[in-house]
Structures are given as structure tokens and as C-alpha cells.
């Protein structure tokens, strides 16, 4: 018989949301329980009780960030009516480039990089899961004839690499005009390679 995970308490949920808002502004790398607890109206002892440890809190924050990303993924997904790879990338880039999403995307970039350099523990699997989520979204946007072949896999991998690289450049420079022009140039090449998809 399997046990169900306990339902989080209202206080844990409230503090997780407050800690998430704090992390969007301050990041995760130097997260210290005392300033965090003070900023969100709690205490280090309560946070340790509710999340088990600082690592437990970090894992909960990563899960919360990933839930936000997966919500975006679900909005972009169209398994029953594939829009095509180019329109999907245009839609995703418009969301990524929007200024109001920068705090979430900085948090994502931080977690992604930490997952690469610290592959065990708190950050384990974050980068890989992100890549798999996005490749799945892009696959759902491809028509079946394109999606199911090696070329289709290569095209969506290229599209994801362009999006990820452009996002990192945008976060580093805030030069939305230049980076968007580069994404559009790559989309034109992608479109030319398939006659529109």
C-alpha cells in the first residue's frame, strides 16, 4: 500500500509563496535563512520545521519555479493541433522577452547553472528536466510527419538552443531589440528549411 504525500499546511504554502517572491528578487545562491525569514515574517526555526532543512526549502523553491515554467509549457502545448515549430518559437520568445518575466527567468538561469555544476543534491536534475519539458512542447507543435523523424528532433533541438542562448544573452545585456533580431533571423532560416513549419 502506497502512502500519499501529506497535504502542505496553509502556513507552509503561504511561506513558500513569500519565499518564492523573495527569491525572485534576491536569487538562490546566497540564500540565508535569517534574512529570508525576517523578510517574509517568519523565523529560521519555523522554516526549518516546515521544510525540514535549508536544502528542503531550496528544493521546494525550485519545484515552485519549475511549476511556473511548466504552466508556461502547458499554455504553449497544442498536441491536437500543431501550430508548427516557427510559430511556437515566436510565441515562446515573445513570452521570454517580456520584461515582467525577467525575475523568474533569472531564477531559472541560476537554478539551471547550479544544476550543471552541482549535479547532486538540491539542484539534481533541474537542467535536464527543463530541457526535456521544452523539447516536449516543441515536439507537440510540430506536425507528426516532421516530429517523428531525426530531422524533426534536430530542428526542435536547434530551436531550443536558440531560445536558451538568446534568453541568456537577453538576461546578461537587456538588449531586447538586438537579441530579438537574432531570434527572428534564425526563425527565417528555420522557416526556409521547411517551407513554413
TrEMBL record:
The keyword DNA-binding applies. Residues 9-69 form the HTH tetR-type domain. Keywords: DNA-binding. Residues 32-51 bind DNA. Signal peptide: none annotated. It comes from the Bacteria. This is TetR/AcrR family transcriptional regulator. It comes from Streptomyces pactum.
Amino acid at each position: 500500500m502506497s502512502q500519499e504525500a501529506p497535504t502542505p499546511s496553509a502556513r507552509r504554502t503561504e511561506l513558500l509563496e513569500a519565499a518564492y517572491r523573495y527569491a525572485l528578487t534576491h536569487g538562490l545562491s546566497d540564500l540565508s535563512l535569517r534574512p529570508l525569514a525576517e523578510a517574509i515574517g517568519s523565523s529560521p526555526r519555523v522554516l526549518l520545521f516546515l521544510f525540514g532543512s535549508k536544502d528542503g526549502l531550496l528544493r521546494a523553491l525550485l519545484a515552485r519555479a519549475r511549476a511556473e515554467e511548466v504552466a508556461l509549457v502547458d499554455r504553449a502545448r497544442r498536441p491536437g493541433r500543431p501550430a508548427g515549430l516557427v510559430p511556437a518559437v515566436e510565441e515562446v520568445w515573445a513570452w521570454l522577452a517580456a520584461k515582467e518575466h525577467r525575475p523568474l527567468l533569472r531564477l531559472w538561469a541560476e537554478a539551471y547553472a547550479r544544476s550543471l555544476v552541482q549535479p547532486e543534491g538540491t539542484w539534481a536534475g533541474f537542467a535536464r528536466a527543463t530541457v526535456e519539458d521544452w523539447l516536449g512542447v516543441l515536439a507537440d507543435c510540430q506536425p507528426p510527419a516532421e516530429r517523428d523523424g531525426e530531422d524533426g528532433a534536430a530542428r526542435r533541438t536547434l530551436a531550443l538552443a536558440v531560445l536558451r542562448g538568446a534568453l541568456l544573452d537577453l538576461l546578461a545585456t537587456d538588449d531586447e531589440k538586438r537579441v530579438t533580431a537574432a531570434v527572428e533571423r534564425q526563425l527565417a532560416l528555420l522557416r526556409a528549411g521547411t517551407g513554413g513549419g
